Automatic annotation (TrEMBL):
Pfam name, any one: DHquinase_II
Subunit annotation: Homododecamer.
Site (Transition state stabilizer): R18
Entry-linked InterPro entries: DHquinase_II, DHquinase_II_CS, DHquinase_II_sf
Organism for this UniProt entry: Hyunsoonleella aestuarii
Organism domain of life: Bacteria
Residues reported to bind substrate: N72, H78, D85, I99, S100, R109
Protein name from the UniProt record: 3-dehydroquinate dehydratase
Catalyzed chemical reaction(s): 3-dehydroquinate = 3-dehydroshikimate + H2O
Length: 138
């Protein structure tokens, strides 16, 4: 049985409330329950933090024992050399995910410190971006 983890970065705990025109009205907890039911043959763990160091610690913790990591580092995607380095230092493949199309947003969101070390990047498909990432591992 595949073992995956979804790791979400800052402000993604506000999904369902935050800018629903961009992120939708479904909470991540509601979405996660749907996904776990749909992919019941896959173990899907979840972690969210607004703190960069906690995200790095979690990557180190799971980066040698999971089959895949689905990472939405949110704003840290565009600023965190540390998260990029953490991905480079682990063995578990990482798929970078974004709910919105970051290239259709502000210029600073067009650069990612995650992408060069990721297995792939999925963006712009709303919460379905996570499901596409799960499918890439199975």
């Amino acid at each position: 049985m595949k073992k995956l983890i979804i790791i979400n970065g800052p402000n993604l705990n506000l999904l369902g409330k935050r800018e629903p025109n961009i992120y939708g009205s479904l909470t991540f907890t509601e979405f996660l329950e749907e996904v776990k039911t749909k992919y019941s043959d896959v173990v899907i763990d979840y972690f969210q933090s607004n703190i960069e160091g906690e995200l790095i610690d979690k990557l180190h913790e799971v980066g040698f024992s999971y089959d895949g990591i689905i990472l939405n580092a949110a704003a840290y995607t565009h600023t965190s050399v540390g998260i990029g380095d953490a991905i480079k230092g682990i063995e578990t493949p990482v798929v970078e995910v974004h709910i919105s199309n970051t290239f259709g947003r502000e210029e600073f969101r067009h650069h990612s410190y995650i992408s060069p070390n990721a297995k792939g990047v999925i963006l712009g498909f709303g919460l379905q971006s996570y499901e596409l990432a799960i499918q890439s591992f199975i």
